[in-house]
Amino acid sequence: MNGGPVGELALTGGEPVLGSLAPVDWPRTTDADRAAVLSVLDSNVLVSDRTAEQTAVERLEGSWARYLGVRRCVGVSNGTTAIELALLAHGVGPGDEVVVPALTFVATAMAVVHVGATPVYADVDPVTFTMTAQSLAAEITERTKAVIPVHLHGLSADMGALMEVARRHGCVVIEDAAQAQGARYLGVPSGAYGNTATFSLQMTKNLPTCGEGGLVVTDDERVADRIVQLRQFGETIRADRPRRYVSHRVGFNAKLNNVQAAYTSSQLERFDAYHAARRSNVAAFLSRLGHLEGLTCPSEPDGYEHAWHILRFVVDFDGLFPGVDTATARGVLMRALRAEGLPATRYQMMPLPEQPALRSLCRQTPASWPVAQQVIDRSFTLQQRHLAPDAGPLLQSFADVMEKVWAHLKVLEELADGAGR
Ligand SMILES: *Cc1c(COP(=O)(O)O)cnc(C)c1O
Asked: Which molecular function terms from Gene Ontology are attached (predicted)?
């Protein structure tokens, strides 16, 4: 049902543009995905340590390494474990500092804490939302052992500049590409630029599995071999002999299973088509929003290919609603959007170091991440609904919603004024 841009806001009793909040329709499971999963079940080769013949995990590892153009890929239990094992394989541990962005999912820093190292937070860029070379350089000390740039929302960090800073200081670069399957930086796929990179296959990500999973990629054979050991109790597993149950290091049980690998391999067959469809759907959506006052749409800088995992819209609340506090203005705007059927959300309620679990471990003050705080305060996000290849019409409805809501900014200002007083 399309109320058109002139009808009354659903928030104040008008007809909503969409009948209800658009549901999540991701991941898309096809008959091919079902057949892939069933064939693993029928084979009874369910976990990754059976090596008599090539397993589904090995097949996925091979295809993803080829897709990125890297030497090695190791399947692990999830994207958080992927970061932990990458850190351990690079020798990061107690006494080391690891620089992570102040705006990302909590797992990026938790992985650092899990290996006994200390996360240090670098501020992000106000336009790309990723760590910058300057913010990284500002946080490097003689204890910095590694840097984890996060390609947040599907846009690569400025890898050339970050690698240069890291090289100068002898730090390892581990890309957290959990949100960036399909992204590119100067033609290089995200995950193929740093020393090592990690991906999540969690079902909300661009390349999903039917549950939880992760991948680590690297050109460094020794790092890859260590991760293979670490994911299975520190054992060396070889295809040409039975498992010996000898542990060479203290490892984990962090294996990916064959059902989940087969599902992802099947998804990978359609990945490029989905990526291309998403790019054209999102471009058509954003092209309708350029004229909305005080709104900054997410963008794709020259030389970057965005994977559009999450769409973040920055709003000039001070300009649109002068004198109203930002949280009130944001709340009213998001309620108005949601009432019309656009599921506006926030991505991260606070900068990462201000998470209750992490606060006491941090030696920095909020003066170190002013931009991350501003971005969180002044934006809303759209997640998952746009990931499916046929989400184009839905995104057009979202554009209708935004045009309608923006045509009623005066009403919102009155509501915000009332709420703020
Ligand atoms: C999802 C995500 C992770 C963690 O991946 P899981 O598979 O959920 O453990 C890490 N970093 C970022 C940026 C993510 O979005």
From this structure: transaminase activity
